[in-house]
Design brief:
With 132 residues, this protein is α/β, with parallel strands linked by helices. The chain has a single domain, classed as Response regulator (Rossmann fold, 3-Layer(aba) Sandwich), CATH 3.40.50.2300. It has 5 helices and 5 strands. Helix 1 links the parallel strand 1 and strand 2. Helix 2 runs parallel beside helix 3.
Length: 132
């Protein structure tokens, strides 16, 4: 089972990424699960309840608890280096700030389906899952 979380305060972005991933898995035999969150607090609550994800698409510009803080929490408080994090933002100026969080990728809005799938394929490969 490949578990994916999408965290973006814009529901349309969450839906767009989920639809792209659903289309991708139509041609794959692997089981997957996608959970959507519209705040960093919601995502951290799940993670604190011992939920694990293989890949998180994480918006940087969230309302209260931003994506950088969520990423730091995952790496430093939960000591989770397994989960791949792909940050999402309309601004490309966050690169240095994200370096210590070790993201798999930085997705700039607007993004293409190919970019979303490229991140998914790389995360699957890094975690030992076969990709067609």
């Amino acid at each position: 089972m490949f578990r994916i979380a999408i965290c973006d305060d814009n529901g349309a972005v969450c839906s767009a990424i989920e639809n792209i991933i659903d289309d991708f898995f139509k041609t794959e035999t692997m089981h997957y699960e996608i959970d959507g969150f519209q705040s960093g607090e919601e995502l951290l609550k799940e993670l604190d309840d011992h939920e694990k994800y293989d890949l998180i698409y994480l918006d940087i510009e969230l309302a209260r608890l931003n994506g950088v803080e969520v990423g730091r929490y995952i790496r430093e408080k939960l000591l989770d280096d397994y989960t791949q994090i792909a940050f999402i933002s309309a601004k490309s100026s966050y690169a240095l700030e994200l370096f210590q969080i070790r993201p798999i990728h930085f997705l700039v809005k607007p993004f293409t389906p190919r970019q979303v799938i490229g991140i998914l394929e790389k995360a699957m490969e890094l975690q030992g899952h076969q990709v067609k």
